[in-house]
Amino acid sequence: MRTMEPTNPISAASHPNPYPYYHSLLDRPPLYFDKEIGMWVAAHAVSVSQIFADRSCRVRPVAEPVPAALEGRAAGELFRHLVRVNDGDRHAQPKLVLQRALSSLQAPVTDSRARATAEQLLPASLDAEALTAWVYETPVAVVAELIGFSADEQSEMARDVRDFVACLSALSTTDQLATASGAAQRLRSRLGKTLTALQPTSDSLASHILADAQNSGWIDEEAIVANLVGLLSQTYEATAGLIGNSIVALASHRGLWDEVRSRDDGFQQLVHETARCESPVQNTRRFVAESTTVLDCILPAGAAILLVLAAANRDPSVNPDPVRFLLDRPNRCTFTFGRGPHACPGESIARTIAASALSVLESRLETAPLDRLAWTWKPS
Ligand code: HEM
Whose CA is closest to atom 35 on ligand 1? Predict the structure, then answer.
């Protein structure tokens, strides 16, 4: 059966091959209004960069800080505190505390913990279902460990995080919203207990965040707990997507496997180029709080903008010969982790976890070659 071409940049994100469509967006103006989706669309490097930098462009509509479907639910209470989905002074201090804690993690420490967790979770038989479960569970288990959870709690945490993130989609069903609220409550309670039980000598992310929060006057335990849940939920699908897309890149580009294995930084470069060429996060949104002008377009208050990161990553003005998958791409320019005030503070952790997990998988793949792995996309 022939798959229909995407008709707009939102449906493109769940299309098996959105890239011909994304390339066509680069022939349109850098910022244009799409009547079908009722949103402005920024798909070029220049327009995505300018919108990310524009302080009038916020992460949520001013009139709806929490999605209506989550109001009155435990998941909505968490949402209210997350730096990812809030702007303004109240969130400036929490944002800095999270950034400092995440950047204090040394890559070799994250690498060795990620390898140990990936080894421990790698199933004996690598059928598609088991490999998929491993790809999802590994990143969230690593971040749970970095936060300060013990190994025996990590699988349940991963399940709760999976159920919680299901409520963050505009397509979530009523059942998913109810399940997500149960998961949000359990995650809140676990993290609350972990914070209370922290030893003064602990070197975990939770203890760094708590100590820095106290020193800088961010005394709001509910918000701290919510943002720790936020770290787990931000990790979950995107990092799994990065590992999965890297495996697909290895299976799709002839000679890449040998090239990766022949270099000391092979897995790091593989993951970085995959993030650019096959972004696990294809778009994000902004909402105009006060009228602003970007690239000669007047964006009125209330307007919504879709930033097509996956298209901007392939803009030849910033990445020449953008379709080629190059481990040695000079001055690689990647929009996958965002830019500006909401730029991802977990980028280097995510890239390290993905590279470490893939190098663990490598030893096993010698006996299960990639060309025998069948794969399909999961529904978005
Ligand atoms: C491949 C994996 C990941 C990708 C592609 C990714 C991508 C992104 C993007 C695009 C944003 C900004 C969204 C926007 O501005 O609209 C973001 C924000 C964020 N990410 Fe990540 N992320 C990844 C992994 C992680 C990990 C592992 C963590 C934490 C351990 C993390 C923590 C965060 C946080 C806290 C924010 C909100 C920052 C703020 O608003 O100030 N992310 N991420």
Answer: 231
At 172-222, the pLDDT tens digits run 788 888 888 899 999 999 999 888 888 877 789 999 999 999 998 888 889
- For 255, list phi and psi in degrees, rounded to 5: 85, -15
Helices (H), the chain: 9-12, 19-25, 45-53, 74-79, 92-103, 107-121, 128-147, 151-165, 174-196, 205-215, 221-252, 256-261, 266-277, 309-312, 347-365
Digit-coded pLDDT (tens) for 68-120: 888 888 888 889 999 999 998 888 899 999 999 999 999 999 999 999 999 99
Q: How far apart are CA 150 and CA 154, in angstroms?
A: 7
Please work out whether the CB of residue 286 comes within 6 Å of at least one atom of ligand 1. no
Ligand 1 atom closest to the CA of 86, numbered from 1: 40
Q: DSSP assignment, residue 297?
A: E
In the three-class reduction of DSSP (H, G, I as helix; E, B as strand; rest coil), residue 285 is classed as strand
Q: How far apart are CA 237 and CA 16, in angstroms?
A: 17
Pick the closest to residue 57 from 47, 67, 66 (CA basis): 47
Residue pair 354/246 in contact by the 8 Å Cβ criterion: yes
Per-residue pLDDT tens over the stretch 240-265: 999 999 999 998 898 999 999 999 99
* CA distances in angstroms from 362 to 153, 319, 358, 369, listed in the order given: 27, 29, 6, 10
* DSSP class of 287: E
pLDDT at 373 over 90: no
Residue 51 in tokens:
């919108």
Nearest CA, atom 28, ligand 1: 346
Which tokens belong to 50? 């300018």
CA of 343 to the centre of ligand 1 (A): 7
Q: How far is residue 245's CA from residue 251's CA, in Å, rounded to a whole number? A: 10
Q: In the block, which residue shows the tokens 């040695």?
A: 328
Residue 42 Cα distances to 145, 224, 273, 313, angstroms: 37, 33, 22, 12
User: DSSP code of 39?
Assistant: E
Residue with tokens 């609350």: 192
pLDDT at 196: 87
- In sign, the C-alpha dihedral spanning 227, 232, 236, 240 is positive
